[in-house]
Design brief:
By secondary structure, the chain is α+β, with helices and mostly antiparallel strands. The protein is 31% helix and 30% strand. The chain is built from 4 helices and 12 strands, in the order E-E-E-E-E-E-E-H-H-E-E-E-E-H-H-E. The chain has helices at residues 63-79, 84-97, 139-149, 156-170; strands at 9-10, 13-19, 22-27, 31-33, 36-39, 45-48, 55-61, 106-111, 116-119, 125-126, 132-136, 179-184. The strands form 3 sheets. Strands 6-7-8-9-10 form a 5-stranded antiparallel beta sheet. It has a 4-stranded antiparallel beta sheet with strand order 11-2-3-12, with helices on one face. It has a 3-stranded antiparallel beta sheet with strand order 1-4-5, with no helix packed on it. Helix 1 (63-79) packs across helix 2 (84-97). The longest helix is centred in the middle third of the chain and has 17 residues, at 63-79. It is globular and about 40 Å long. It starts with 8 loop residues before the first strand and ends with a strand.
């Protein structure tokens, strides 16, 4: 379909918060097509255990594309067990240079409980400042809210839940049906 006739998929807010030796990744459940909510209970945050090492990943973008990237990340982690940063860099290099992968439209937030990384198709592997990362339609709202809440004594799950609630109140492509995963090193 021509891009100007297809309304496009929207929806997803994924937030990662690191504090006190824990990382929480939270994702909403909304998938929208144009002005219509197609699904409100999608699960966009997953726990993976490649090579026996737990990681948590959240994705924004095309579901099939994100699953392809998660499978590739798992393969990289099995080749380099326990080295999340190296696996993310290798995935980003492949994503940037492989003609098939270049067409994938998704972003990832991943954590091993020690660090948070945002991985993009532009070849970026970003470790966010202020121990907060967000992607997706409502990502900037959740990011701003979480950064403000980092000044409080709340634990990372409370910060993530409150920030996601704020994003859901502002962004029409974000809902309050959360999937929350916690991981610690």
């Amino acid at each position: 379909m021509a891009e100007n006739t297809f309304p496009g998929w929207h929806g997803t807010t994924i937030l990662g918060v690191k504090r006190g030796g824990k990382v929480v990744i939270a994702g909403d459940g909304q998938v929208s097509l144009g002005q219509t909510v197609i699904k409100g209970t999608a699960r966009k945050v997953r726990r993976l255990s490649p090579g026996g090492f737990d990681i948590v990943a959240g994705f924004a973008g095309s579901t099939a594309d994100a699953f392809t990237l998660l499978e590739r990340l798992e393969a990289k982690l099995e080749a380099t067990p326990g080295q999340l940063q190296r696996a993310c860099v290798e995935l980003a290099k492949d994503w940037r240079t492989d003609k098939y992968l270049q067409k994938l439209e998704a972003m990832l937030i991943v954590s091993d409980g020690d660090a948070i990384y945002v991985v993009t198709g532009a070849g970026d592997v970003l470790e966010p400042e202020h121990d907060v990362a967000a992607i997706g339609s409502g990502g900037n709202y959740a990011l701003a809210a979480a950064r403000g809440l980092m000044e409080t004594d709340l634990d990372p799950e409370q910060i993530a839940r409150k920030a996601m609630a704020i994003a859901a109140d502002i962004c029409v492509y974000t809902n309050g049906n959360l999937t929350v995963e916690t991981i610690s090193k």
